[in-house]
Structures are given as C-alpha cells and as structure tokens.
Amino acid sequence: MVSECMNPDCRQKLHYLRSGRVVRVVHCGGEQTIVEHFWLCGACLQRFDFRFAGQDHVSLMRRRLPAPVEAHALTLTLVA
Ligand SMILES: [Zn+2]
Question: Ligand 1 is a single-atom ion; what residues have CB below 5 A from it?
C-alpha cells in the first residue's frame, strides 16, 4: 500500500486519507497480477494530477484548474 505522496518534492506521509487522491493500477500479464497504489496529498492535488502514459507508466502533470478538495479514488486497470 502507498505510504507517501507521489510528488518527489513533497513526500508527505499518508496517515489518514482525508484529502488527496489515490489511484490503483493493476498490471495483468501472463499468470502474474501486480497491483500498485499511488497517492497525491491534498496540497499537491491542487497543482498536479496523475498522468497515465503507456501501458504501465504513471507520472505527474501540472493542472490548469484546481481540483476538488475532498478525497476520492480512481481505479485504473492496465493490461500488459
Ligand atoms: Zn504532496
């Protein structure tokens, strides 16, 4: 499970999911399934969002508009 903010300039520890956003990425390939979680804290979510590029690459991109403050989750399934 995720333990800190994905932003390398922040790295805030995740104690309670009160704000921000969590995504779960499921890699399904062959006989093995790998699940990864990524979290952006509330402050970073105002400036960044997740960017899904390619089959299994998750990075950050700058937002043009602020995000909602409340916590919410998104599940993305990637098939390798
Ligand atoms: Zn952060």
Answer: 5, 7, 10, 12, 41, 44
